[in-house]
Every structure is written in structure tokens, then in C-alpha cells.
Amino acid sequence: MRQSLVRKAVIRGSISFCTAGMVNVIIMLIVCFIQSDQDYVPMLEEFWKRFPSQSAAILTEILLIGTIGAAFGACSVIFELERWSFLKQGIVHFILTTIVWLPISIFIWAVYIHPSAIISMTASYSFTYAVTWISNAVRLKKMVKEINNMLE
Predict the structure, then answer these.
(1) Does residue 28 contact residue 64 with C-beta atoms inside 8 Å?
(2) In 3-state terms, what secondary structure has residue 49?
(3) Which of 1, 18, 39, 21 is CA-nearest to residue 104?
(4) What is the pLDDT of residue 1?
(5) Nearest one of 90, 87, 89 to 129, comparing CA atoms
(6) Cβ count within 10 A of residue 81
(7) Which among 45, 70, 77, 152 is least surrounded, fewest beta carbons within 10 Å?
(8) Percentage helix, strand, coil, to 5, in the chain?
(9) Cβ atoms within 10 A of the Cβ of 87, count?
(10) pLDDT above 90 for 36
């Protein structure tokens, strides 16, 4: 059981890494196309100025965004731990993904410049996570009720 969950986590993490990185590249290309300025760089100046070249900054951003995707993908196996309550699964998933998401987001989006932005960004992330978790809890409760009604 444990090995199969680890295997699933690695597979999901790998797929999510690639997907998030690819989506990031596509968005960058669309923004560059819309901007139509040869000198435009589709990221914050505070971020890319930390690197020896814009190419290095772009590659780093793709890898970091991929890492966020990998964390969400790999950590999704937490919701398959049948002995844990849905609340415990959600709390552990939230903590683990936040540990990855928060520092990367602060670095990429340079919100460290304005400390209030860190608070706002974290609150927004937490609120979005809570809404998603609650909507899934309601959906799962409804599914369980429907299954129980079918069994009666």
C-alpha cells in the first residue's frame, strides 16, 4: 500500500511538474505575443534582474512553477489515505503544499518588497483553498448520501 502511494505520488508529481511548466510557458508566449514589444520580458523585473540572463530567469521560473505543480500533484495522494478523515487529509495537504507554494511565490512575484502583499497573497491562497476544500466536502457528503440511499 505504502509503495503504491509513493509510486502514485511520484507519477502525479512528475505529470504535474510538466503540466505546470508547460502552462507557464504557454502563458508567457501569449503575453509576449499580445505585448508585441521585442524587449518585453514576461516576468517581474525584480525577479529576472537577479539572474545573469533573462533566459536563466525564464528557465528558473519554469522549474519553480513546475515544482509547485509537482507538490500539488504528489500531495494529492494524501486524499487516498482512507484511515484519515477528510479534514485531516485537507489540513496536511494544505500545510505541505503551502510549504512549497509560499516561498516560491514570494520569490517569483517579488512580494517580499511589500510585506503586506505577503499577507494578502497568503490570505487569498488560504481562502481559495478553504473554498475548494469545503465545496469538495459538500460534494463528497452528497455522494455518500446518494450511495447510502441506493443501498437502502
Answers:
(1) no
(2) coil
(3) 21
(4) 61
(5) 90
(6) 13
(7) 152
(8) 85, 0, 15
(9) 10
(10) no
